[in-house]
Amino acid sequence: MEPACLDPIVSGNVPQALVSTQYLEPLFHQDEDGEIGPWLAESWEWSEDRLALDITVRDDVTFTDGQQLNAETIRENVEYIKDPATLSSTAILAVEKVESVEVVDEFTARLHLSSPDNALLEHFAQVWVPIQSQKALARGMEENCLSPVGTGPFTVESWSKQRQIVLVRNEDYHTPAPTAGHSGPAYLDRIVWRFLPDHANRFSALQAGEVDVIDVIQPQDAIAADADPALDTLIGSRPGHVVNLTFNTTQEPFGDRRVREAFTRAVDVDAALKSIFLGTVERSNAVLSSITKYDLQQPEVFATDVARANALLDEAGWTERDAEGYRTKDGRRLSATVLQTESVLVPVAVLEQFQASAKEVGFELLISQEEQSTFNERRYAWDYDLAPMYYTKNSPAVLNLTHHTDNIPSVIEGGYHANNHGLEGPEAERIDQFLDTGSTTADEQERRESYTAAQDAIHAQYLNLPIFDQQTRLGIRADVEGVRLASPLGMPIFHDTWLDRP
């Protein structure tokens, strides 16, 4: 999928992250165990009350436009993120507790917070909160969208919309992540990042050698690639909120917790995944992905149980049946509409299997296939009963975005909201309390306990039907060496990549 902007601060989604990882870098590095280390930042120090964070950046880093990295860079980047004109969604939520940035000296910035935020360093390790040249940011959002300026191993040479992005090697590169295979400039001279939306055409191009790497390789193609000596695959989970169906609790029928659980118990997720994904993905039983800190897998909560589904719907008053066998109450059919769009990774075929399972208990599931633009419009307007969702983030604090009542309102007027279930009332307030403690405590054990309790409460309310971990799914020519999925978000990086061919 082609990004609408090459600057991941504007909006903030996976297509942007995939390409911008090649030319933008963050302040911090987070390893596979979740530990934070320096990257563009050299050191950091919290105040005793954890309401101020001093970040000292390296003094030997220059952006590709000649601008030196310094404390002013951090100040300008945070101000750019928080400016409503930037239209940020992911990054603005990541720095929402940062009230101001003070320049302490040439290379040290002090971030002043409204309340403690123990995920802030994790936020600054994401490509959605990268560090960009303040000289480039001053050009304005439109120009920055076309050619962001960072410190990464490649730079943006050109963008031919709906065709390709051309990235060229940064000859002065010397700031690789601690896990990089080498320290100097990239081995590749350039990368041509093409847009081939059709899955079959994309895989055919890989087989024919017209392209070297493809993204979102389909299950049947992954199996074929693994059996072909000329091809390889590279598949890995991403952290954050799993691929799921989110219930809109602000309207019927899913304002009733019993109906949410009944739908969850009616569908057979395992059978759908086995049938459609051919055993290449594992079922998730938690709202956090399996590689996210403190994930709480609860298969007993989400297991298919048709008898329980029927009993719950009877208890909720959906006891009559119409001529087609669907349940009714007060003359209304038990019906729900699920939105579907290609980019959110829940295929129509999976939803059709859910549709068949739901019908067996008298639940009508309608599938509304949408273009990305109309999917977003309907989601922003709460015009859905169920919607496929995920949120890539390297922290259990993703739940503060996707499940806290603070994020039910739109970040942008009439637009994006990170909380898509909309639950309010005592149970939502209880979840908020766990999330608030989890995000502010300085004690790691209390953080773990709080996020575990939050998940237990979220699962008990059946706000989401977890399906599978988000994944990066690459198909690769076998003579392409050194492609790796970079921590913490599992995005591919090509700094160490070379072509082993004549």
Q: Please, could you describe this protein's structure?
A:
This protein is α+β, with helices and mostly antiparallel strands and 502 residues long. It has 2 domains: 14-141, Dipeptide-binding Protein, Domain 1 (Dipeptide-binding Protein, domain 1); 240-469, Roll (Dipeptide-binding Protein, domain 3), CATH 3.10.105. 29% of the residues lie in helices and 23% in strands. The protein contains 17 helices and 24 strands. Helix 10 packs antiparallel against helix 13. The longest helix is centred in the C-terminal third of the chain and has 18 residues, at 444-461. It is globular and about 70 Å long. It starts with 13 loop residues before the first helix and ends with a strand.
Unreliable stretches covering 5 or more consecutive residues: none
Q: Supply the CATH class of the largest domain.
A: Alpha Beta
Overall SS class: alpha+beta
The CATH superfamily of the largest domain is Dipeptide-binding Protein, Domain 3
Can you tell me the overall shape? globular
Radius of gyration: 23 Å
Overall pLDDT, averaged?
95
Short description:
With 502 residues, the chain is an alpha+beta fold. The chain contains 17 helices and 24 strands.
List the helices and strands and how they pair.
Layout: H1 14-20, E1 28-30, E2 36-38, E3 41-46, E4 52-57, H2 71-82, H3 90-94, E5 98-105, E6 108-113, H4 120-123, H5 134-137, H6 141-146, E7 154-160, E8 164-169, E9 190-194, H7 199-207, E10 213-215, H8 219-226, E11 231-237, E12 240-247, H9 257-266, H10 269-276, H11 299-302, H12 306-315, E13 320-321, E14 327-329, E15 332-333, E16 335-340, H13 348-360, E17 364-369, H14 372-380, E18 386-392, H15 398-402, H16 426-440, H17 444-461, E19 464-468, E20 471-477, E21 480-481, E22 484-486, E23 491-493, E24 498-499
Parallel strand pairs: 16-17
Antiparallel strand pairs: 1-2, 3-4, 4-6, 5-6, 7-8, 8-9, 10-20, 11-20, 12-18, 12-19, 13-14, 14-15, 21-24, 22-23
Helix pairs in contact: 9-12, 10-13, 16-17
